[in-house]
Amino acid sequence: MDPEGVGTVYRIDYFEDESAVPCRSGSIEFAIGEGQVIPQIEEAVRNLEVGNVVAVDNVPANFSNGLNVRLVSKTPPPIPYLTPEQHRQKGNNLVMQKDYGEALLEYRRGLKLLQKDHQKDLEISLRLNAALCLTKLGRWREVASLCDIVLSKDANRAKALFRRGVAYQNLGEFELAIYDLSRAFELEDDQAIARALEESVKFRDEKKKTSREEFRKTYQIDIQW
């Protein structure tokens, strides 16, 4: 069955001849797919404009004069409103499909709904999930900003420290990265955090070495720092 029209409530008048002087007539409300009227009527009214009349084809034999229906009204199904938690779950499913842009939109929709609800744990979860999407999209400043908000509400949230540390690492701010990643590792002994911390230390040391060598070449002096 064509899914269009499913859930829509139709109100019709029906009669047995085009003059609308009925030998048999009536009025009824029904929804597509619920079996309240014969399938021929469902098919006839699916694309009918309100106020128009249509002859129904292939009606049962007991309608000896044929059957006509007038569409009186058509009420579409209500738009389902998602809760913040449902937006989070929808975003999580999109992340699993690696559709990070759409997932980010779902997390942000959930956050907008939370502005009135003040559900701290769910808000933090949505912000961290949004930060994950931004990480995958390489939007490091936005990752850091989102994690700033999370850490202002929960300073010991290891996942926020980890994601902000990774953002700082990719921005070349290695001291800040090391600080955040060290704190995250103290809170949660996790191999991903340990690897990121090790990388940040390595990148910082390489940067210092490069800077020292460039300085020495420029001024022809030996320095230790």
Write the layout of secondary structure elements.
Elements: E1 9-15, E2 25-31, H1 39-45, E3 53-56, E4 67-75, H2 84-96, H3 100-117, H4 120-136, H5 140-153, H6 158-170, H7 174-187, H8 191-219
Antiparallel strand pairs: 1-2, 1-4, 3-4
Helix pairs in contact: 2-3, 2-4, 3-4, 4-5, 4-6, 5-6, 6-7, 6-8, 7-8
What does this structure look like?
- The protein is an alpha+beta fold and 225 residues long.
- Helix content is 56%, strand content 12%.
- Strands 2-1-4-3 form a 4-stranded antiparallel sheet.
- Helix 3 runs antiparallel to helix 4, helix 4 packs antiparallel against helix 5 and helix 6 runs parallel beside helix 8.
Give a short summary of the structure.
The chain is α+β, with helices and mostly antiparallel strands and 225 residues long.
CATH class category label of the largest domain: Mainly Alpha
CATH fold label of the largest domain: Serine Threonine Protein Phosphatase 5, Tetratricopeptide repeat
Total strand segments: 4
Strand fraction equals 5-15%
Number of domains: 2
The parts where pLDDT drops under 50 for at least 5 residues are: 19-23, 219-225
Briefly note the structural class of the backbone: alpha+beta
Shape: rod-shaped
Name of the CATH superfamily of the largest domain: Tetratricopeptide repeat domain
- Helicity range: 55-70%
Catalytic activity: [protein]-peptidylproline (omega=180) = [protein]-peptidylproline (omega=0)
Pfam family, one: TPR_1
GO molecular function, one term: peptidyl-prolyl cis-trans isomerase activity
Keywords: Isomerase, Rotamase, TPR repeat
